[in-house]
Structure formats: C-alpha cells, structure tokens
Amino acid sequence: SLSLSLRVPRGPRHKPRAQPDALAHDLQRDGNVARARSIYEKILRKDPGNAEAVNLLGMCFLEQDFPKRALALFERAIALAPAEARYRINRLDTLERLGDPEAAMAAANADAQGAADPDLLHRRAALLRRLGRIAEALPAYDAAVRANPANGEALIEFGQTLILAGKHEEAAKLLEFALEAMPGHSGAILALADAFNQLDRAPEARDLL
Questions:
Q1: Which of 19, 104, 169, 192 keeps 20 to 30 A from 70, CA to CA?
Q2: What Cα–Cα distance (Å) separates residue 195 from each residue in 52, 131, 189?
Q3: Are 167 and 175 in contact, with CB atoms under 8 Å apart?
C-alpha cells in the first residue's frame, strides 16, 4: 500500500501579521472607530477603488455621528459596486437618520427595480409602513416574503401590516404560520392575539398570552 504524509518543516514559527483591512474591521467592531477610520483612509489612499473600504469608512463616520459624510461614502461605494445590496441598505438607513424619508423612499424604489435583493425589498416594505403608506406596503411585503420565505421578521411585519389594513383573517393565518416557524416569538404572539381579538376570538387570544 502507498502511504502519503505531509511533512511540516521545523523552524521558528511566526504569527501571521493581520491584514490592515481585517485589523480595522476588528477595531471598528470593538469600538475603536477612530483608529479603524485611519486604517481605512490609508487603504483608500493606495486603492481608491476599494468599495468595501469605502463602505466601512462610511460606517465609521456614521458611528461618529457624521451622517452626511457617511452618505457621500455610501454613494461612492454604490458607484464602485452597484450590485452590492449592503451599500444600498446603508444609504437607506443614513437617509432616514438624516430625517429625509422621501429621499430614502426614492432610493428604495430605485433599488427595488428589476431583480432586487430580498433584503432591499424588505427595507422598502418596512419604510412604506413607517411612512403610513399601508396600501403600498402590503404588496411590497408580499414581494419581500416571496423573495425570501425564510425572513421571519418580514413575515411578522407583513402580518402586522395586514392588521393595520383591517385584513385580520389573512393576518391571523400568516402569523400562525410564522409562529410555527418561530415558536415563542413575542412580536408574532402579540400580533396574532391582536388579530384574534379583532376577529372576536378572545379565548384564543388569551391562550396565547
């Protein structure tokens, strides 16, 4: 029989040096945003087309409460990598933080065109709901759930939006399905109890709570 072995050469072992972007990411995660930001800026001086570094630098500015500078960086990241949904989601969040929901809505509508990312569809539906545009939010949630049936939060929000639209029977069915997938989810339980109460099914509501 033929046996093979992997021989590891002996000698001093050197711990691999962390890559600058990985180091910056760890620093940012641990709250050392200023140092992470300086690393991203250094990376971008050498590689201005690094979309991920642009995006993470934008996150640094957002964490330091400079949303306008963050927004400009997210726009730049989108221009560099148009297919990356995370950059578009960061732009939507920043526009809302800046108190400009209409601009966020315009961006969300543009992002939802064509074969949109399921997370972008979910964000658009949630934004419509927050703006009180319930009739538009319903088909938006339907599209988001169809694009990603495993998105339990979108499913529950869809049920809650159906309640706001007065569609209590549909909401109850959807929320019962959601609870089968996510037993014990407090948001789904409360929404389903609400739907049951609206349907004069108070004993079933009490059993949930």
A1: 19
A2: 43, 22, 10
A3: no
